[in-house]
Every structure is written in C-alpha cells, then in structure tokens.
Design goal:
The protein has 64 residues and is of the alpha+beta class. It contains one helix and four strands.
Length: 64
Amino acid sequence: MHTSRPIEVQGRFLGVAVSQASAWRFIATDPVVADLHGTVFPSTAEAQRVARLALHRTRPAVPA
C-alpha cells in the first residue's frame, strides 16, 4: 500500500508525494513544477522545500 502526502506552498497545491519503500516520488499537478514530476526525495519535507524553490523561481523579483 502506498501513502501520499499533499505538497503545497503558501496555500497553492503543487502535487503529491507518494511513498515508495524508503523514498517519496513527487507527482506534479501544477504546471509550474512540472519539471519535478517523478523526482524521488528522501522525505516529504525535502519535496516541499524543492517545490517551494521551484515556485519562487517563476516569480519576478520585487524591486527594492
């Protein structure tokens, strides 16, 4: 049986992490993180951290 955990950042649902043995495979549901689809992470926290980075790379920098 597989276990899954939602991955969201600031209320935006980006995908799910599905357990596979001792790792978690990321299944992207939001196009902004499509390049992460299928990536294996050691934990759901790491999947969320990388998804957060991917989300923020698409946002323009706010001028100072």
